[in-house]
């Protein structure tokens, strides 16, 4: 089942993203995203054993994409967005430790790097979409009686889905929307 989900994520990424210099980075995040979402849903943990190598590989792939395209400003923006996103999630985790864990903070920085590579609009949209999607999911669970106000809900999958939506919108509609 996990292999099938990874295959679907790869196929969707290829379909939406198309052939670009940053396609290997998008594919990496598609597969790592499936692994991370699955683990977070099962255990409410985002393991460093997946996050750390994904972060290193993403950084290397974005450097290669910069070498291929000359888009060094995109690489700098990726670094700045990773820091901004990571610090933002860290502040939220410190303010409400029961709400976000350090895995969410690290994932936020990782996704911030990818979305920052795509543009500031993508970075903002990705973070907002993750919170909106997670909020809607929580509301649905509450209304269905499957959760209470104190039920812990894995946030990583919603962060990942928000990033995927923002990436797809940016790649496909960004030039039209001026993103």
From TrEMBL:
For this record, the Gene Ontology CC terms, alphabetical, are: plasma membrane
Source domain of life = Bacteria
From the broadest rank down, the organism's phylogenetic lineage runs: Bacteria, Bacillati, Actinomycetota, Actinomycetes, Micrococcales
Q: Which UniProt keywords apply?
A: Membrane, Methyltransferase, Transferase, Transmembrane, Transmembrane helix
Protein name, as recorded: Leader peptidase (Prepilin peptidase) / N-methyltransferase
- Into which family does the record put it? Belongs to the peptidase A24 family.
Question: What Pfam family does this protein match (any one)?
Answer: Peptidase_A24
Residue intervals of the Prepilin type IV endopeptidase peptidase domain: 28-138
| Gene Ontology molecular function terms on file | aspartic-type endopeptidase activity; methyltransferase activity
One of the GO biological process terms: signal peptide processing
PANTHER family attached to this UniProt entry: PREPILIN LEADER PEPTIDASE_N-METHYLTRANSFERASE-RELATED, TYPE 4 PREPILIN-LIKE PROTEINS LEADER PEPTIDE-PROCESSING ENZYME
Asked if Thylakoid is a keyword of the record, the answer is no
Q: Where are the transmembrane segments?
A: 49-68, 75-95, 115-143, 155-174
Origin species:
Georgenia satyanarayanai
């Amino acid at each position: 089942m996990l292999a099938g989900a990874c295959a679907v994520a790869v196929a969707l990424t290829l379909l939406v993203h198309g052939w670009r210099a940053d396609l290997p980075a998008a594919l990496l995040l598609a597969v790592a995203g499936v692994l991370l979402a699955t683990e977070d849903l099962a255990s409410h943990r985002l393991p460093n054993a997946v996050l750390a190598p994904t972060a290193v590989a993403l950084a290397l792939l974005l450097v290669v994409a910069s070498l291929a395209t000359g888009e060094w400003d995109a690489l700098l923006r990726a670094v700045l967005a990773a820091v901004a996103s990571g610090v933002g999630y860290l502040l939220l985790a410190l303010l409400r430790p029961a709400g976000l864990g350090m895995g969410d903070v690290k994932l936020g920085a990782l996704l911030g790097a990818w979305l920052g590579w795509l543009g500031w609009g993508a970075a903002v949209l990705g973070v907002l979409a993750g919170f909106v999607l997670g909020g809607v999911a929580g509301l649905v669970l509450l209304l269905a009686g499957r959760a209470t106000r104190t039920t812990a809900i894995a946030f990583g999958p919603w962060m990942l889905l928000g990033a995927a939506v923002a990436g797809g919108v940016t790649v496909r509609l960004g030039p039209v929307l001026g993103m």
